Amino acid sequence: MDVVKKILEYTIKCPVCGSEMKIEDHLYDMPLVGKVIISSGRCPRCGYKWSDARLAESRGARKIIYRVEKPGDENALVIRASTASIIIPELGVEIKPGPAALGYITTIEGLIMDIIEKTEFICSEPDAPLDECKKKLEQLRKARDGLIKYTIIIIDPEGVSTIVSDKTREEPLSEEEINALEKELLGMDSQK
Ligand SMILES: [Zn+2]
């Protein structure tokens, strides 16, 4: 993966402590993918690391669908923009965008490992629902070990996420789905 160039530098408010933090955007040219923008920065006060990854060119609001059903499928590369949701119905996983959401480039396997790590963290809290945690972690570990088939669905209102594989199916979002997403975003604002 070659860095083509640094294209932008700007500041955002740290989602953790509210300090100003500097973000740099770099443009990469990736084989099989094309131009990808990776943003990253670190808060000088609390050390929080922010990152995002997205295709340089939007292809319109869309749903990206990928089935993991045989060994090797977990090696496909995922580019998830911070504004996209990830849903894995069989595992009861739903990752929503939000002010502290990160975008990243990882493999399906890396994504599952990350979800396991976060679930373990949540489940180590004293008030965690133990039965539910046990069941969920069991399912996630089966997925990690290739013992169950599952579907990765990315809902991307900006159309800048992708899963790099011939098997990936992409569908435009319906009017209803876009409306539902907008409603959700407005809901997030009014909770502040
Ligand atoms: Zn901070």
From TrEMBL:
GO molecular function terms noted in the UniProt entry: zinc ion binding
PANTHER family: ZINC FINGER PROTEIN ZPR1
Entry keywords, A to Z: Metal-binding, Zinc, Zinc-finger
Residues of the Zinc finger ZPR1-type domain: 12-165
Entries under Pfam families matching the protein: jr-ZPR1, Zn_ribbon_ZPR1
Entry protein name: ZPR1-related zinc finger protein
Stated family: Belongs to the ZPR1 family.
Key word NADP present: no
Matching InterPro entries: Znf_ZPR1, ZPR1, ZPR1-like_arc, ZPR1_A/B_dom, ZPR1_jr_dom, ZPR1_Znf1/2
Keyword Zinc-finger: yes
